[in-house]
């Protein structure tokens, strides 16, 4: 019977090909190679073959999540650097918190901008509908 520790150990030792990750995350292999070129992923190599580990898989998941949340690749890379440098450093964690707060502020501003545009579009739509109604009477 496998223990929880053995299962975790096996998962952490798992290897993935670029094709495996491409299929799992529904992205192109070209995208994965681009993230590698940007220094966000660091697969080992066996000849010309890239071999990705669990850490790379988790990072890829975080990269894609960051993109959905509006983080640039540079910002994601900065978070990775801060995390890799020292997970327990007060300075590193404070820097990470500052980046997160800045991004939250950006997203809140974008939300306000989107809401303002939606209000303007609704007003324009109402005006167009009123004019159409008058033209058809």
Describe this structure in words.
- By secondary structure, the protein is mostly helical.
- It has 2 domains: 1-71, Multidrug-efflux Transporter Regulator, Chain: A, Domain 2 (Orthogonal Bundle); 100-137.
- Helix content is 74%, strand content 7%.
- It has 6 helices and 3 strands, in the order αβααββααα.
- Strands 1-3-2 form a 3-stranded antiparallel β-sheet.
- Strand 2 (44-46) and strand 3 form a beta hairpin.
- The radius of gyration is 23 Å and the shape is elongated.
Separation of termini? 80 Å
Q: Please tell me what the overall shape is.
A: elongated
Any guess at the CATH architecture of the largest domain? Orthogonal Bundle
Number of strands: 3
How much helix is in the residues?
Answer: over 70%
Structural class by secondary-structure content: mainly alpha
Low-confidence segments, given as residue ranges, are none
CATH fold name of the largest domain, please?
Multidrug-efflux Transporter Regulator, Chain: A, Domain 2
Radius of gyration: 23 Å
Count of DSSP-assigned helices: 6
Strand proportion: 5-15%
List keywords for this structure.
137 residues; mainly alpha; Multidrug-efflux Transporter Regulator, Chain: A, Domain 2; 2 domains; three-stranded antiparallel sheet; 6 helices; 3 strands; 7% strand; elongated
Task: Give a short summary of the structure.
With 137 residues, the chain is mainly α.
List the SSEs and their pairings:
Elements: H1 4-12, E1 15-16, H2 18-25, H3 29-37, E2 44-46, E3 49-53, H4 54-68, H5 73-85, H6 90-136
Antiparallel strand pairs: 1-3, 2-3
């Amino acid at each position: 019977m496998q223990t929880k520790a053995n299962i975790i150990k096996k998962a952490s030792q798992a290897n993935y090909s670029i094709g495996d990750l491409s299929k799992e995350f529904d992205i192109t292999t070209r995208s994965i190679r681009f993230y590698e070129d940007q220094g966000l992923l660091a697969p080992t190599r066996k000849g010309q073959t890239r071999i990705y580990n669990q850490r790379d898989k988790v990072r890829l998941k975080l990269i894609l999540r960051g993109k959905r949340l509006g983080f640039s690749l540079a910002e994601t890379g900065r978070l990775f650097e801060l995390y890799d440098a020292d997970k327990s450093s007060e300075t590193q964690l404070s820097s990470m918190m500052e980046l997160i707060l800045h991004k939250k502020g950006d997203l809140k501003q974008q939300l306000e901008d989107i809401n303002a545009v939606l209000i303007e579009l609704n007003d324009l739509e109402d005006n167009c509908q009123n004019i159409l109604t008058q033209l058809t009477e």
